[in-house]
Amino acid sequence: MDYTFLLSKNDNICYNILTRFTQQPDQTLNKEELTQSLSLTTYQINKYFESMNADLALISKGEPCYLDEPNRGQWQAFGLNSFKLQKVALLYLNRSPLFTALEYQFFYANLYTKKEYVAANFMSSSVFYRSLDALEDILKDHHFYQASSLYASREFTIRLHLFQLYYTMYNSVSDPFEPLNPLVADMISAIQSQLPDHLNPTQETKLSTFLRVWLLRMLNKHPVEKGQLQIKPTAASQSMMAQLQDLLADQLKLDQTEFDYLYSFLVAQGFLGFDKMREMARNIPAVNELTEQFMAEIKNSNVLLTTHFINDSSLKESLLSIHFQFTTFYIEPTTFIDPGQVDFFADLYPAFDVAVSHNITKIQQRKDVRLTQKMAINLYFSYMFALINSIPPALMRDQVHICVDFSQGVLYTNYVIGSLDAFNHAHLIIDRHLTPDTDIYISDFHSPKVKQTQVIWQDPPTPVDWSNLADLILDTKRSKLPQLFPDQDVSTKGSDTNEPQQNRQK
Fold first, then answer.
1. Number of domains in the chain
2. Quick one: how far is CA 11 from the chain centroid?
3. CA distances in angstroms from 166 to 3, 89, 170, 182, listed in the order given
4. For the segment 313-343, what is each residue's pLDDT rounded down to a tens digit?
5. Domain end position, chosen among 73, 93, 113
6. Whether residues 294 and 236 fall in one domain
7. Most buried of 42, 361, 425, 448, CB within 10 angstroms?
8. Residue 69 phi/psi, 5° resolution?
């Protein structure tokens, strides 16, 4: 979910412009084109230029980060990167009246009166009340209350989307609700003592954000509904619950339903190991349904030479983890959501691309799952990585055979073969001798006896040579697709993971 709708109008425009800078390799924008695309006057665009520079000065803390106009009509950003863009976004969020209203509505409405909250936040009463009145309709317009997992209860959905908001906007910049820092640190230590492995920094950040939303919703008297995810008590889980209750004793009583909710999150994130996830997944039929559906798609889609030697356990574990998170605590990602990167994987793994895209189309047709474009793209990458890590090139039908044969002898031949290891993710099979299966022949001299495509390197290959070889490998893989998937339109480069697969069939 894109939470920039919470920003004020002017800050939203500034954030839009700064984002465009980061998307350009030279971080340069044409002022006139920018003015027209945003429907702004010259006076307005110049005011935004001044405002953005003031904001960049606030978040850069002495580091050079600013906008300039080195050439007339050309704006250029200096020192602007994704981290500074995130800091600007957080600056805009925290000064948004709508965000202040949101925090009151979801975290403090049962603890303070509106008058007390307005006074504590030093804001205009009229602005606060106007924002609070508008908040509900705005949240509905942006599907805030629409479940993004199979658990469609209102409180479960609200908590998940609040977590996504704070995790997305605060991650790596600062901690939300900083007064909670000491308590959250103690809670993480208590949880860590019962985990099989030490939490990595990204995992600890995720857990820290989750705990803050969880605590504040409980304190504001919004309990999670019963009958959601239930756990089977163990000595370790009971010990964890007891430690957390001791830490929270002065503020609230931790009941079993709320602890199960927290524990389920730990399971979904893989913090408690795969066995716990598999145990809980037995109570969620959709997890097994989606996993078996994907396995059937891979085995029946002509992707593999054989289905008997596939590493079922490795792939099934990866798929179960993907589907458990997808159906429970699905956290809409901020990375691995670029549709442009799908083309890269579609080119490199065309057989996987067809199978993965077809399976995502089946999920889109389910009535119990809401799949946005970002979710579909992220799911595409998750499936791709699961397949790449579980299925060796030797099992793939779209493998490319390369014969390396240099007149300089075995040393140079082995050097090139070793260098080709950089392409091992492209389902390459290296042939020591020319065979009927060979697709590409690499040598230092052209041979009239070789009928296959020949690549001649009479000097050590340059980066351009390697790039040309990569293009040839991709062309070779694409040329094999019509034979592997005669019913599919494989002429289209890449995959649109938000477009039904059947629309791309002949």
1. 4
2. 25
3. 10, 12, 6, 18
4. 888 899 999 999 988 888 876 666 677 778 8
5. 93
6. no
7. 361
8. -125, 75
